Automatic annotation (TrEMBL):
Domain AAA: 3-178
Superkingdom in the source lineage: Bacteria
Signal peptide: none
Entry protein name: Chromosome segregation ATPase
Amino acid sequence: MAHILAIANQKGGVGKTTTAINLACALAQTGRRVLLVDCDPQGNASSGLGLRISEPDKTLHRVLLEENGAPPLHRPLDELSLWMIPANPSLAATEWKLTATPGSETVLASRLKPLDERFHFMILDCPPSLGLLTVNTLCAAHSVLIPLQCEYFAMEGLSLLLDTIRKIKLRWNPSLAIRGILLTMFDRRNNLSHQVATEIRKHLGARVFETLIPRNVRLSESPSHGLPVMLYDRHCAGSRAYAALAHEILQKGADRA
Ligand SMILES: Nc1ncnc2c1ncn2[C@@H]1O[C@H](COP(=O)(O)OP(=O)(O)OP(=O)(O)O)[C@@H](O)[C@H]1O
Ligand SMILES: [Mg+2]
């Protein structure tokens, strides 16, 4: 049975997509079969792995709006056991159409079910909003990983996200767990980064992953080459950090396979 992990934070630019891509690939490098689902109309996870798909029929659109038919699985990189359901900007219109569907919150959950036996992990990259697409990912997920950028306003909006998670647990997905808070873009030469990390650990304690994701230029360069960081520069600090995160997640038992 696949473990479904949503990467969510309605705050923009905190490292959701960077984490979705590189965690998915780091897990695939351990031999797990991983499905990365791009649930964001920006399509950054797709283009970051070199997939620019214009036909809606080959994207998440088909999964959400067409009940029948095989989901459009792509395999962006031959060397990894990683599959992907990509997205493109038409997903914004799909979200609107989905609103008119009865039970619209749980459509993704039911469409991912038939894929359950084929993967060890499904990683869902969320858009920067708490709209219907994010709600769908939280209804489908076993757990959620929340990236927080090591900046002054990091925790702003966190209570709204935690409240949304609570409501989704009550109404649709009682076993949804918070897998962890991930500190991203940590700059060890910057005092503020240290202060924010300390403050967040003080408030959220054991919920925070031990692994810290450093600010690393390789992480921002690799998507423009259509590669995860570990295939772009396998020795850089970003590669090591996401390998450590995958290891921490496997150790803490998110691997239900
Ligand atoms: N650890 C890092 N070091 C350096 N740059 C990073 C790091 N993590 C992310 N970035 C860069 O920061 C920007 C935002 O990251 P990313 O796209 O992953 O955030 P996001 O939360 O998915 O954004 P959005 O809310 O728009 O979907 C990108 O340009 C990315 O390359
Ligand atoms: Mg993103």
